[in-house]
């Protein structure tokens, strides 16, 4: 698949919005309930750029089919070298290697930015995502029972970690 990974721009936001809203409304990949508005997604994007955090897209045939980003894991100064990442794909683009290309780019960018560790917080029922992360060296580091609630059920979360630099 001919794929371009590049920095997202404001013109990508409507497609990014469609992708995240599909995940919100139909999956437990994200524990939000309500679809986002373009204004909310724009504010998120502007804050990410202002904070120096990457938002990248995967483009195929001049069409955005997925995106990824990361942000500081927790808003305390001591966490400034730890990030939590997210990758979301257009429904039709899953299983084609797009997520892997996005994750590789995020890992590379994190390493170049002096980030020490990347963290993925994954719904425990999403075994595909857990196995996907293992292929990139992420290790399961925590399991939290019933920390989320969506679609009338309690959800468990798995924390996965990749240390980018060893002392």
From TrEMBL:
<dbReference type="GO" id="GO:0016747">
    <property type="term" value="F:acyltransferase activity, transferring groups other than amino-acyl groups"/>
</dbReference>
<dbReference type="Pfam" id="PF00583">
    <property type="entry name" value="Acetyltransf_1"/>
</dbReference>
<keyword id="KW-0808">Transferase</keyword>
<dbReference type="InterPro" id="IPR000182">
    <property type="entry name" value="GNAT_dom"/>
</dbReference>
<protein>
    <submittedName>
        <fullName>GNAT family N-acetyltransferase</fullName>
    </submittedName>
</protein>
<dbReference type="InterPro" id="IPR016181">
    <property type="entry name" value="Acyl_CoA_acyltransferase"/>
</dbReference>
<feature type="domain" description="N-acetyltransferase">
    <location>
        <begin position="3"/>
        <end position="165"/>
    </location>
</feature>
<keyword id="KW-0012">Acyltransferase</keyword>
